[in-house]
Amino acid sequence: MRKKIRLGEMLVNEGLLSEEQLQSALEDKKNSKLKLGQYLIRNDYCKEEDIINTLSRQLRIPRYSPDKHPVDMGMAQFLPADTARKNEAVPLYFRGRVLVVAMNDPLDIDALDSLEIFTDREVEPVVCTEAEFTQLFTSVYGMYQGLDDILESVENITTGDDSDLTDYQDLNVNELESQADQAPIIRLVNSIIAQAVSEKASDIHISPEKERVQIRFRVDGKLKDVPAPSKKMMPSIVSRIKILSRMDISVTRVPQDGRFTVNMDGREVNVRVSCLPTIYGENVVMRILDMSAGVYTLDQLGMNKAALKKIDSIIHKPYGMILSTG
């Protein structure tokens, strides 16, 4: 059972903050959504480095260092991005059965307990600055954090009556067109595609469920969850994708196919789209083809050495054929 420790008391004991300053900060921060440490830094009560060093020294928690704490990029498969974001902890690596995470606020006992329950592992934090946290989060989860920020900006857009989120087939077509052309929806769809291309994903799966939407990228053959908008955003998102793909947004009860091309950083990316109606809405799959990537050589296909050697010997024979299926 972890014991709760108050940051303010630690800073006062260190001489970084007076009792009067602490009480004033506690009173003033009630009107903000910031934690005490964030409020003290943003209002120039203390320097972030001083707070981080105090936490590390008094709690005997290691200070994050790239040399001592290498990041295992495979941790995204073990701890989903939304769980890491919610608990403000980036998984770094395993040490035996101990999960080491980077946190800007290692005093968040509830977050640590939540992570231990979710992972069924003992969790040990290392303390880091906010800038280091952002960098680590991006390293492990790619551009997910930026997508989270966009999702926050579109939550105020609604489609139809929220009391019936699944039956949106009869919504007014003009209303769908109008909402699909709103800047936040355009930014959201563009960001989803940009993130998928950045992650070298081959597919984007947008799947409506009973009470939520699931967005997944297929990377190296495996599906990875990414932050998803609320269910009420689904009609606007699907309509925007349909408009890009030159589909009929008034048709929602039969499958449709389409395609479009986007240019990203001077690269041409082809996107093939299919929409399939389900009981909870339309399921969308986007197949991504980065034209600048070219055709992979045998060495780049990821085969083991034995299989590569066997195929290399076969293709030099003057007869027969090789079929690649799947």
General description of the model:
With 326 residues, this protein is α+β, with helices and mostly antiparallel strands. It has 13 helices and 9 strands. The strands form 2 sheets. A 6-stranded antiparallel beta sheet has the order 6-5-4-9-8-7, with helices on one face. A 3-stranded mixed beta sheet has the order 1-2-3. β4 and β5 form a beta hairpin. α9 runs antiparallel to α11. It starts with 6 loop residues before the first helix and ends in a 12-residue tail after the last helix. The relative contact order is 0.08.
Main sheet attributes: strand count, strand direction, barrel closure: 6 strands, antiparallel
What characteristic shape results from the CA principal axes?
Answer: globular
The overall pLDDT, averaged over residues, is 81
From the alpha carbons, calculate the radius of gyration and give it in angstroms.
Answer: 25 Å
Order of helices and strands: HHHHHHEEHEHHHHEEEHEEEH
Instruction: Work out the strand percent.
Output: 15-25%
The helix/strand class is alpha+beta
Q: What's the end-to-end separation, in Å?
A: 51 Å
Sequence of strands across the biggest β-sheet: 6-5-4-9-8-7
Q: Enumerate how many helices there are, as a single number.
A: 13
The tally of beta strands, per DSSP, is 9
pLDDT below 50 for ≥5 consecutive residues: which ranges? Answer: 156-169
- Give the % helix: 25-40%
